Structures are given as structure tokens and as C-alpha cells.
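Dear colleague,

Thank you for sharing your sequence with our group. We've completed the structure prediction you requested, and as agreed, I am returning the results in plain text so they can be pasted directly into your records. Please verify that the sequence below matches your submission; if there's any discrepancy, let me know and we will rerun it promptly.
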Amino acid sequence: MANFKVSLLSNCPIGSTRDIYRAEFEPGQPKVSQAHGPNIIEHCILLSGKACIGPVENPVLLMPGDYVTFSGDQDHLYEAKEKGTRALVIIEQS
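Please find the predicted C-alpha cells below.
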């Protein structure tokens, strides 16, 4: 029998769409994204490195394997704290 575990991080609401991105970023100037408007949720799983991600006023420090989700209707940032930072970013629109 395979040693396999799965954990649901977020289910997709009926009628929503999701775009999936691989993000690669390095320490230095953070990427600040303008608010996208209503009904946008961002999900992020850090794959490698260390980063502060989330709303500009309250970002979360993530380590590899950490997950954060936040509303895209506010300015938000992606700031690498280590070289070789990579993340999976999912943008959900309902």
C-alpha cells in the first residue's frame, strides 16, 4: 500500500474559476499588487525560500509548505526573504 496523504487546503466554490501561477522571486524590492476588485481570493503555498505574503497592512511570514489566503480587494505584497523563493499562487474569482 502506498504511503500517501492528502489534505484539502481550500475547496473551490461552485461557479468560481481559478488560475494557477508559479511565482519566482528574489530578495530586494517587494512586488506590491494593486487591489483586484471584489470577489477575488488569492491562495499561496510557499514551495521554497522564505517570504512575507499577504495584505500590505498585515503580510504573513511563510516557510516552505506554509499556506496563506487573503482577499484580493486590497493592496497586497510578495516579498522574498531568501534567494530562490518560489510559490504556487492561485487566484480565485467568483
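Summary note from our side: The first strand starts at residue 17 and ends at 25.

Kind regards,
the structure core
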